[in-house]
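Entry 14. Two folds queued back to back today. First construct below, sequence then structure tokens.
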Amino acid sequence: SRKFDHKQLPMKNRSVGEIDVSETVHDLHDQNQSQEPTQRERPDEVPQRLYNAAIRYLGAREHTVTELRQKIARKFGCEFSDSEVDALLAELQAQGLQSDARYADVAVRSRVARGYGPYYIEQSLRAKGVAAEIVHETESWQSADWLQLALLVKERKFPLVTGETRYEDPKAWQKAVRSLQQKGFSSAIVARVIGA
């Protein structure tokens, strides 16, 4: 299947030229780091090996708190206590090195660029440990136009399907409906896009 044309992405209050799908979590992480003081002090209650491992993970890409906990558990097992891991995560957040909100903002933008709707995005980020409230507060979520996005996806994948198709070719109509729902669009939006 051909790639989703991100240049057509509907984002409220933003021109098409402002939408940069190539911007990754890495980009925002780098921007954040450039604003950080060059010297960071590790608190005494955070072991050096634990801190170094977390910095390596975050240097590769942004991680949610849940992801970091899982990776630390896989790497170190029970070597470090819960309080030490909690202190580490608190320190990383205080230094601006870890942020679930930042992760969510870029993840929403990325998934919108790939034509995914709100339900899919919420579920995929919930699996990463990001609460729906955090997702809904991101700029990417608030600027997304879900109806227009669903229309673009429908026109790209099912340009000939309309409300009349439901009676003329029920299988084609049902396939289009299922596809949009699997992409994470609500039944109400699908009905408006295809016709019920």
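Second construct, same run, same settings:
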Amino acid sequence: FAEENYICNIIAFIGKRGMGKSSAMLSFACSLEKNFLIMPKIDMSMVTKNESLLDIILASMWEKYDRENSIKSSQTDLRKQFVDVKDSYVRFKNMEKKNSEDELYSAKEFKKLAKSLRFRESFSALVEDFLAMMINDNAIAKANRYLVFAIDDLDLVSNNQGEVLEQIKNFLSIPNVIVLTTLDIERSILNKRNEL
């Protein structure tokens, strides 16, 4: 399902602690066919205050790429895309920090700002090319290849939970990505109240 620029691609496993959400999510991920590339599970309870979900996702993709790249021939274009996406993401994060400051931008700074705002598009292109390299099967159309992220314990985010949810909505709601997540909704509501 697509609404404007966002794809509804999130499957949430919701329940209280100890109800088997993580097991159900991982079982579901393992049942997916060969056109799905399942990334290692991300445990949000282990994320430090200075890390973001996108930091972990990019690092996980890079590790998988680097491992495969040592086996396959060099993929310099994909390597360059990783660098460009990471640079764009860093600029985006820095822009968010400076958002409250009123500054006049030079033409060069506007160009950098525009590039960071295109992070979603550059990440989407990276995912498409990453999948083409990792799922090297010509029988599977590019549109039918999916990158699956399993995000566990979303309710146990130690820092700003709203920021993590916003990252999922803004950057992972793209074609060829599926997000599996587990969540204790009651704990999540308590966390939100404590943030306020």
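Quick look at the second one. The longest strand covers residues 146-152. The radius of gyration is 18 Å.
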